[in-house]
Each structure stands twice: as structure tokens, then as C-alpha cells.
């Protein structure tokens, strides 16, 4: 394997039983079907991703795709880069119900955190029980895919 090639992991999370909350899973499934991301680890993290067991140690970039309430219009696509300011707090005492940020903090404490973490968040419209994305969110999948491709290319070009 070419050691100079960046190690990138793409992780989709969410609950596909709650309509738009499952956008991260739907996007990951679409990417897996396309087969167009050679060299990128693609992971369906489900509803409660245990990053310690899912993500290889010391990767160059972790891209997380998930529903994210940011106050924008439904379907808005957000790009959040996680940096040191997000990692300042101590990890919680309990290991039950850890969120993504808690897992990243734990990985940092263990010295196995990704060099760069980017969250691609999509503003949901409908998170009620149901198996299908809302039409508004479904129509944004091509834009989400372009955003992910740009994140991957950004690392591959360096």
C-alpha cells in the first residue's frame, strides 16, 4: 500500500427508522452501492457508533455524515470541522450514552484520534417514525454527495 496516500474514513450515522434522522445511513448505502470511493473506508455506524471499535487508529481524516439541527432550512448542508476547542472538556464519567464528540475525546485521550475530523450535517425536516426520507431531504442527496467528494479530494490532493 502507498504510505503517502492519506487514510480516510467515511462514517454515516443515524436512525433510518426515523425518516430524515437516517440521512447518514442512506448516504453511506448510496456510496457503497456506487463503488466510486476506492481507497476510502466506508462505515455504516448505525444509531450509536462506537468510534473506538469502528474507526482505525491514527487515520488522517474522519468524515462523519449525520442529521444535524443547526436552525437552517430543511436540507441545509453544514460542514463542521472539529478542532481542539471542541475537545477541551473532560470525557464523561459514564460510558453509557456516549455521543460522537465524547468518543472523539476518548480517542484523543488514548492517543488514537484522527488527524482531522469533519462533520457533514444535514438539517432534517421530519424525524417521526417512518422508513423513507422526506422528499426535501431526498432531493439534497446529490448535493451531499458533492460535499463529501470535495472533502475526500481535499485530503487526496495534499
Give a nutshell description of this structure.
The chain is an alpha/beta fold and 158 residues long.
Describe the structure.
The protein is α/β, with parallel strands linked by helices and 158 residues long. The protein has a single domain (8-156), classed as 3-Layer(aba) Sandwich (Rossmann fold). The protein has helices spanning 23-34, 51-54, 100-110, 135-138, 141-156, and strands at residues 8-12, 40-44, 61-67, 77-82, 116-122. It has a 5-stranded mixed sheet with strand order 2-1-3-5-4, covered by helices on one side. Helix 1 links the parallel strand 1 and strand 2 (40-44). The longest helix is centred in the last third of the chain and has 16 residues, at 141-156. The model is unreliable at 91-96 (pLDDT under 50).
Number of helices: 5
First and last CA, distance = 17 Å
Main-sheet strand order equals 2-1-3-5-4
> What is the number of beta strands?
5
Class by helix and strand content? Answer: alpha/beta
Fraction of residues in β-strands = 15-25%
Number of domains: 1
Helix content: 25-40%
Quaternary organization:
single chain
The ordered string of helix (H) and strand (E) elements is EHEHEEHEHH
CATH architecture term: 3-Layer(aba) Sandwich
Mean pLDDT: 83
Radius of gyration in whole Å, from Cα? 15 Å
Classified by CATH, the class is Alpha Beta
Secondary structure layout:
Elements lengths: L7 E5 L10 H12 L5 E5 L6 H4 L6 E7 L9 E6 L17 H11 L5 E7 L12 H4 L2 H16 L2
Parallel strand pairs: 1-2, 1-3, 3-5
Antiparallel strand pairs: 4-5
Amino acid at each position: 500500500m502507498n504510505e503517502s496516500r492519506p487514510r480516510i474514513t467515511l462514517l454515516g450515522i443515524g436512525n433510518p427508522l426515523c425518516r430524515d434522522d437516517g440521512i447518514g445511513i442512506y448516504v453511506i448505502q448510496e456510496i457503497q452501492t456506487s463503488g466510486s470511493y476506492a481507497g476510502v473506508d466506508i462505515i455504516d455506524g448505525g444509531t450509536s457508533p462506537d468510534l473506538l471499535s469502528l474507526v482505525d487508529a491514527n487515520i488522517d481524516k474522519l468524515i462523519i455524515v449525520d442529521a444535524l439541527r443547526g436552525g437552517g432550512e430543511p436540507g441545509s448542508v453544514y460542514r463542521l470541522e472539529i478542532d481542539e476547542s471542541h475537545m477541551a472538556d473532560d470525557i464523561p464519567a459514564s460510558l453509557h450514552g456516549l455521543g460522537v464528540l465524547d468518543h472523539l475525546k476518548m480517542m484523543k485521550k488514548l492517543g488514537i484520534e484522527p488527524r482531522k475530523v469533519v462533520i457533514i450535517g444535514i438539517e432534517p425536516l421530519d424525524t417521526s417514525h417512518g422508513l423513507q426520507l422526506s422528499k426535501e431531504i431526498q432531493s439534497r442527496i446529490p448535493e451531499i454527495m458533492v460535499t463529501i467528494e470535495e472533502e475526500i479530494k481535499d485530503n487526496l490532493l495534499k
